[in-house]
Amino acid sequence: MKLRLAAAQRLKTVLAGEHFTPLGANDLADGRDRALANRLITTALRRQGQINVMLADLLEKGLPARSGSFEAVLRLSLAQLVFLPDLGAHSALFLAVEAVKRDAKARHLSGLMNAVLRRAQANSARYGLMDDALLLPEHFTTGWTAAYGSNAVAQFATTLTEGAPLDLTLRDNDPVLIEALGAEPLIADSVRLEHRDRPVEALPGYDEGRWWVQDAASAIPARLMGLEAGRSVLDLCAAPGGKTAQLIKAGYKVTALDSDGTRLQRLKQNMGRLGYAPIVVEADAANYDPASPFDGILLDAPCSATGTFRRHPEVLWNRTARDISGRVTLQQALLTNAFRCLAPGGTLLYCVCSLEAAEGEQQVSWALDALPGLELWPIAAGEMKGLEQALTPEGFVRTHPAMSPGSGNAGMDGFFVARFKRTR
Ligand SMILES: C[S@@+](CC[C@H](N)C(=O)[O-])C[C@H]1O[C@@H](n2cnc3c(N)ncnc32)[C@H](O)[C@@H]1O
């Protein structure tokens, strides 16, 4: 019951618009309970599009208003009944009814919960055969089909239900460590663990700081800086520091800037574990004014994060068109200040973990118009070994979850990268 209540509480916050973070040891001390609760939540989130259809079918009058945890508990039980049959139908029904009885705002709905779940149980075979196309909201399917093609979008739905593997970036190339991790090399210094039987902190090499967690797509931009070692590089929007670590590994003199003090603490802890020591600055990237300009700047701009839907399925349902246009305006302010902080001759890398052209390709056109002295420096095929298909004719990098690096086939995050030079 404790597990169910904790899972419902977390799902409720995500349905209200918060970012999904898995339950941790502070939420549920027992590791097995925690794993099960997180499995229930992620299944409910990944299957949200199909569960929405079930809810419309099962609740003739729609969801009752002001009903506390009712919706979250119901979604978890539907996920269990239809998509996790190994967990048993009886517990899905029994625990849901008991959970709402413990919530003063939902108690009066325990009869409805029971009736709805019994009908769902009777229909579970039919619900289990629902079309995967329902997993993605229609407006995203339309835009992404135009941009990436219908085969890719059909694969997006599959990668959503399967979730993301764990990718690591290695501090040093060490075949013995790769073997000990049970990992497959992908491209450059990225490796992939398709299956994992323990927490990240318990994997070989964690304590010694021999790798950091970073999706293979997220590891692409920092490799494209193209400057000599020893040059000064500003990592804008740096926390928790995946790209900072790569820039230090490449030999640059790195300043890591972020506006969020809590996230910067995490960056410092991460760098401490890796034995790296960037200069750390807490500031707003839109008006940071450095004492001297930098030779290189990496701007990993805040974005809709639609490219991360395999790990954050909630972005599919929580993002509105207005959110995206708000991010577009912020990205333009950050690009403008990045240009101001860059020395003539310097390199600017712009990247976002978004699948939306408005935050990627269209921002490049905007920047080339709005910032005289900024020129495109196309990325070359030779810089994208093992992932040539991600290179666009303009010399951008565009990845998406239906693309796989190297010989892998389990997808990658959606990312967009463009590279510029400041000529004057
Ligand atoms: C996508 S995350 C960055 C991930 C990071 N680059 C990495 O590779 O680990 C975006 C970051 O932007 C930061 N951010 C958002 N708005 C900002 C601003 N105006 N100035 C500086 N940082 C900002 C957030 O705090 C967040 O840490």
UniProtKB/TrEMBL annotation:
UniProt GO MF annotations: RNA binding; RNA methyltransferase activity
Domain SAM-dependent MTase RsmB/NOP-type residue range list: 144-423
Keywords tagged on the record: Methyltransferase, RNA-binding, S-adenosyl-L-methionine, Transferase
Assigned EC number: 2.1.1.176
Gene3D superfamilies cross-referenced by the UniProt entry: NusB-like, Vaccinia Virus protein VP39
Protein family (similarity comment): Belongs to the class I-like SAM-binding methyltransferase superfamily. RsmB/NOP family.
Name used for this protein in its record: 16S rRNA (Cytosine967-C5)-methyltransferase
Organism: Devosia subaequoris
